[in-house]
Amino acid sequence: MAAESAPPFFAESIVFLAATVVAVPIAKRLGLGSVVGYLAAGAAIGPHGLQLLGSGEDVLHVAELGVVLLLFVIGLELDPSKLWRMRRDIFGLGTAQVVFTGITLFTVARFAGFSHATALVAGFGLALSSTAFALQILQERGQLSSPYGQRAFGILLLQDIAIVPLLAMVAILAPGEGPSTMADIAQEVGLVLAAVGAVIFAGRYLISPVFLLLAASRAREVMLSAALLVALGSAGIMHSVGLSMALGAFLAGVLLAESSFRHTLEADIEPFRSLLMGLFFVAVGMSLDIYLVMANWQYVMAGVALVMGLKGLFLWALARGTGSPNSDALRIAVTLPQGGEFAFVLFTAAVVNNLLDYQTANLLNAVVILTMLLTPVAGLGLDSFAARLKAKGVENPSVETFEEATPTVLVVGFGRFGMVVAQILTSEGLEITAIDNRPDRIDYARKQGYKVYYGDATRADVLAAAGAGKAALVAMCIENDKIMAQSIELIREGFPEALIFCRATDRAHALDLTKRGVDFQIRETFESSVVFGRAALEALGTPLDRIDQIEEDVRLRDEERLAEQLSQGMYAGSEKLHRVTPRTAPKDNQDATPAQ
């Protein structure tokens, strides 16, 4: 019996996985980051390396979905108000960087002998940085939310927008192409506005109700499918009118940033994003023609030095000129000096339209890839310089690192108990994030003005997306003992620095939580029962000093009984329930009433 043939792409998948399993840990160990590992793996297995795989272009078309999902996840972390606050960085700093760098590189290319059209495409193509590469570096460093990380992201976002007019420029410069009529231009603009309007309308009014309905079914795989549909569907709408798919996914993510399902969406998409991003960088590495680079190494290395030097200089100068301290300006300069993935798109379009020949396009692609490979080295050089200065006792604010230190609280479970806890915490001005798995509770809390997100407390990825990693304290306010136990184990293992405060449903649960070593636990009815009993005694005419004595004695006996139950079992210490509080003489005899 003949053996069945392997499924399509089966052998290729094994080669991809094996290469990344070897290369990425080595790159991480050397301090270069995972992206360099993926690029090196692609270069090794590609048609210009060991020739284990053919062209990476087909793979790149699929892997570009990783960039789409990355921008969707980033969008989830930026609500519209925050995006509006970034407008100066996006349209001011970002535009200035692209224009100044592009014009300078265009001028250099013209002096080098390139034609006017070729120099424009090369100059502005190399002015773009890699959104995927830079965001991956910022996320690995945990500095995307830092001031310099936010400014770098604003620049990258403008560059994603800039690819649209740059592709239009290629079409205009193409030989033999006549200018478009005003009617054609108006039609294109109308289609673009309609696509943007459709994404905004769906994100604002349709998606949240649909997710609310799906969450009630408790079918995780359906929620996952819906999350991917939202990200890829919005990207497809934008792509159909000639805009960047990544830009469409980003817009959808921003519109869902204030949704109750933000953290669950992020946790569900993260594995797909990570895998496809890795595949994207492997495919980019496969396109590096090592032999062409070696044959023209002087031009390639000059191009790499020119691009990284000029772009880094403009980034530093513009960041400093727009208010960044020297430390942040330097970090922006060493994070964004590389070429970007959209340069590949622009150069390919230029080849198709006869603005670039194949060899020139390949050399430009090689410059982009090598700048990507050298970007982590530039970052390591800055870190090493800072470390040397610190070792010598030199205080230099230009190289100091940034660490975010805002204390936050994660509230898990937002019923009546959790809502009161949140009210007390926010009364002190503390920042809280709350998650719950009941859509009805989430809807009620949102109507009360609280931001509560849908999330499963037994999933480590959801806890991480909700901010457990940076939370100073996790308040466990859920009713289900088993779910709380699972969540406590995940927090102890994944986020050991966080304090764990727990709501105990009853005495047995309180004993179990004590054995688990939580930092604080309290029975949900104990304090309210004490207050109830005090009110009853007061109504029956018991003096207030006597009520205080009784409360103190009851609390003391309760603690003693809990200690005995921990060591002797649930029924130990029951005699303490029935003891009458002894009467003691009041501290102020003048105000005391003699005991009868």
Ends distance: 102 Å
Class based on secondary structure composition and strand pairing: mainly alpha
CATH architecture of the largest domain: Up-down Bundle
The top level CATH class name of the largest domain: Mainly Alpha
- Radius of gyration, whole Å: 31 Å
Lateral strand order in the biggest sheet: 3-2-1-4-5-6
What share of the residues does DSSP label as strand, in percent? under 5%
Percent helix, as a range, is 55-70%
Individual helix count: 24
Sequence of secondary-structure elements? HHHHHHHHHHHHHHHHHEHEHEHEHEHEHH
Q: What is the number of E strands?
A: 6
Q: How is the main sheet built?
A: 6 strands, parallel
Q: Which stretches are poorly predicted, pLDDT < 50 over at least 5 residues? A: 394-406, 589-596
CATH topology value of the largest domain? Na+/H+ antiporter like fold
Shape: elongated
- Mean residue pLDDT: 77
Number of domains: 2
Word description of this protein:
The chain is mainly α and 596 residues long. It folds into 2 domains: 58-265 and 294-391, Na+/H+ antiporter like fold (Up-down Bundle); 408-577, NAD(P)-binding Rossmann-like Domain (Rossmann fold), CATH 3.40.50. It contains 24 helices and 6 strands. It has a 6-stranded parallel sheet, with helices on both faces. α3 packs antiparallel against α12 and α8 runs parallel beside α16 (341-352). The protein is elongated, with a radius of gyration of 31 Å. It starts with 9 loop residues before the first helix and ends in a 28-residue tail after the last helix.
